[in-house]
Fold this protein.
Amino acid sequence: MKKWIIGLFAMLMSVAALAAVNVNTATQQELETLKGIGPVKAKAIIDYRSKNGPFKSQADLVNVPGIGEKTVEKLKADLAVSGSTSTAAAKVAAKGAAATGAATAPAAQQTAKQAKAAAKAAATPAAPAAPAPAAKKP
């Protein structure tokens, strides 16, 4: 069983490493899986895309406020301007599984939002138990 879980986790990580995020179809959560792209830059990409139409090349990203040539160069291997973005959800699910230590098949099927929520919940320490009420003396 351990070998199966380790194998599944390794497979998820290898798929995530090869995944390219399509900047023309990616959601904000999918864009946030890119190193150096947080909520503000992800929203800026989506806003620019909505206003100006799809990106024709990766280099067009320098027109987005807050993203420069260095950022585009660092992300080049992880960016695409065509194709599917569905592998980004697997990337987020893999991060969530790594954070929770639960690399199971259902974790791979989670949406990006569910994976982030699970990772956040796993990182939050449990509240201490309330003390038991004192017993009444007869």
Q: What stands out?
A: The radius of gyration is 20 Å. The beta strands are 21-22, 79-80.
